[in-house]
Amino acid sequence: MRVEFDRVTIGQEIRLSGTGIHSGEQCQVTIMPGKDRIRFVHLGSVIDASAENVSKTPRSTWLGTVRTIEHLMSAFAGLEITDADVVVEGSELPILDGGSREFCQALMEAGKKRIGRTACQMFGRVQMTFEGQSISIAAGSGCWKYLLKSSAFPGDQTATFQFGTGEYLKELAPARTWCFERDLPEIERLGLGKGGSLQNTLIIGDGGYRNEPHFENEPARHKLLDCLGDLALAGVPARFLEVAAEASGHTMHVKAAARLKQLCFWEDLATP
């Protein structure tokens, strides 16, 4: 499949600050108009937002030295922004609302600007399975599905999103990060989750949610939000893909993004 699409950046610089979900420290991110795809700037280094530059994937996605990039990358993908420079101060991006809603709102307020046009030729599909996890990626019409598997509450959940007819800001962006209540002692022991709160994190108990969910299937929606952000590291616009994931996490998503990128040939087109 060969597709052509506009390269789009934001209209003006924006800045957001808040607490890092894992470090608990104050973090700041400045997002500026770009012209060289998505790039992160941290500790004096420029890091392309590409799967091969992912350094770690425990409970979040690290791009080089920057942690928790998946929610902002999901916002870029959901709003179809292809180019931006992201300067991060602190060890990770701020968790903000726990999803990508605040990122989206700031990006929308900044406006969009077309800066060029690109063609992508995709050769083949991606199919991965490992220990109960799976992901399938093919050329398609922008239908994304995620199946969350759980033997306890909330049980199996499905989330879907259709590019072209769905509204990312309403359907996926508000879905917050979440954790099982039984895992909190281990998270604390590992020194993680220091910036978590009942506002930015949905807590799942043995028999129900401990705080009010934004959607009944909020955990599955957030996993789909994460999947969208991780696969954005391949650079292929989400509206041209058909994705079905089951019980997958950041590690599998990043591997799938790397494979997808290998299957693509890119061509920058002359701007009319």
Structure notes:
This protein is 21% helix and 36% strand. The protein is an alpha+beta fold. The chain has one domain (2-269): lpxc deacetylase, domain 1, CATH 3.30.1700.10. A 5-stranded mixed beta sheet has the order 2-3-8-4-5, with helices on one face. β6 and β7 (62-63) form a beta hairpin. α1 packs across α2 (101-110) and α5 (218-231) packs parallel to α6 (250-262). The chain is globular. The two termini are 23 Å apart. The mean pLDDT is 96.
Which short descriptors sum up this protein?
single chain; 272 residues; alpha+beta; lpxc deacetylase, domain 1; 5-stranded mixed sheet; 17 strands; 21% helix; globular
Number of domains: 1
Q: CATH first level: which class?
A: Alpha Beta
CATH topology: lpxc deacetylase, domain 1
Mean pLDDT over all positions: 96
For the terminal residues, how far apart are their CA atoms? 23 Å
State the strand order across the main sheet: 2-3-8-4-5
- The assigned CATH architecture is 2-Layer Sandwich
CATH superfamily: lpxc deacetylase, domain 2
- Rg is 18 Å
Structural class: alpha+beta
Work out the helicity level: 10-25%
Outline: globular
Oligomer category: single chain
- Counting DSSP E segments of at least 2 residues, the number of strands comes to 17
The profile of the biggest β sheet is: 5 strands, mixed
Question: Could you spell the SSE succession in H and E letters?
Answer: EEEEEEEHEHEEEEEHEHEHEHE
